[in-house]
User: Fold this.
Amino acid sequence: MARRGKHAFPSQIETDLAVKMDGAHYVYPNGQVVALSGVDLEVKKGELLGVIGQNGSGKTTLTKLLNRLLKPTSGTVYVNGLLTTDRTVQEMSAHVGYVFQNPNHQLFARTVKDELEFGPRNIGTPEEEIAQRVAAAVEFFDLAAFIEEHPYRVSFPIRKLVGIASVVTMKPSIIILDEPSTGQDHQTTRIINSLMRRLAEDGTTVICVSHDMPLLAEVVERVIVMRNTEIIADASPREVFADQQLMLTTNLQAPQITNIALETVYPLGGPIALTPEELAADIASRLEKGKR
Amino acid sequence: MPNPIVHFDSVFYTYPGTASPALSDISLDIMPGEYVGVIGLNGAGKTTLGLSVNGVVPSMLGGRREGTIIVGGLDVEDYPVREMAKIVGIVFDNPEFQMSQMTCAEEVALGLENAGIDYETMRRSVSEALNLVGLEGFEERSPLGLSGGQQQRLAIAAVLAMKPQVLIMDEPTSNLDPIGKQEVFGMATTLNQKYGMTVIVIEHEVEVLAEFADRIIVMDGGRIVMNGAPTEIFSRADELQALGLRVPEATALANILGKKGHWKGSVPINTGEAVRSVNALLGVRA
Assistant:
């Protein structure tokens, strides 16, 4: 069923997957720089996925193929069963919310409130529903004090939360967060942490590109590791962070607590801990057993 | 005992058009060659503290300042920022915003040109500064073609060319990948240990500060609320938590075990210390 001058892939498929990529390849238009080489990836609906790797490894290109900002040079990308190549950026934006690392790239309204209302209004959400979503976001992100401010009058960290909130109010079924915790203090990182959990509980697929390993260790169920335009590992954070060879070749660092676990309880049959609480519990049970 | 390189005496500062002070009753001494980490929530006054060391606050940003700041023996109030730049260099989290020239050499030379340094001295200083940050041979490269870590090191070279005694880094790696982060902190440590440069770094990642800093300053609501050696500061985890801050994961581990009565001895602040203590607790021989 090849269409003339086009590709031979079905425009829509029946699938339970949020994302289905097959051999997705992307070469920048000058034909010189390969940014993504034949990536296969399946992401289930409601999954919490972390994407790690050095700058230039292909992370951003991968995510831009999902919201259709880029079209694969070859291979296919299906998002919610829709072949992205056959859709407009506008159409895909109702499915995929993209939160930029730098909020200055996405904010433009006159007040924080306008900013939060803009997205849902743009996709035709009823006014009553918009008001509800904005109120919920203002409460969750603790933005009440800034609601009438110009987005550029608030501090950079708050602006970044506004950027995240303005996508959340659109309720896309897939949310991509690009370095959400960069430049954020511990308190704000906690808000982002609980946001990701809550979104996933509501069935939203969350894809988080980040260098913040402790954040990913705590929140995501699955991590893909990118290097030189390819996915070189795809496993649970526990497995990824325990793979010292992988960490070394990608120059990535596991959370401090994981490294401590690997050099203490792990050789004794203990867990590859991802949080201090988990490691402490294991050590305490060993000490208590020793006393008996 | 030498004089402090940075001396704050009862400093208050309020930005123009705001009611509450961004800095409140700051008294602080930093000795030459110290490596100081500054932590605190966003809005606690960390950046303002940094900007007041070289006089950008208040001389360029306006506002009202009270109290005395003496840096490198000079009263900041009496000298313009361009004079203070010879003593204090500052880099921020966005190196690409600080890049304006066609080549790395020109980028580094910019401050020297503005200071009216002669050509030969300038060329020597540029090479020295590039060497210090590990970018030797990059003179003719374009700053825009560099990796994030290299750009940040170039921004640091540009301030080092002025031969400052104090280097302030304000969240220097928050936009860098892990390799870039290692590059920048590794380089700052060399400058501190090998050349005795005073380093002040504002940073959220406490694991990094625990690794490198001699002293931690904790800010909250424009005030310095804690000030001491990393081990001392991070062992006060409950107080830090009340301020919305966290401790290194190594320290958090010891604190949890301590509450269950399982921790003896000093509190670890880095991976090595925690591993040794835990293995000793478990009776594992290294």
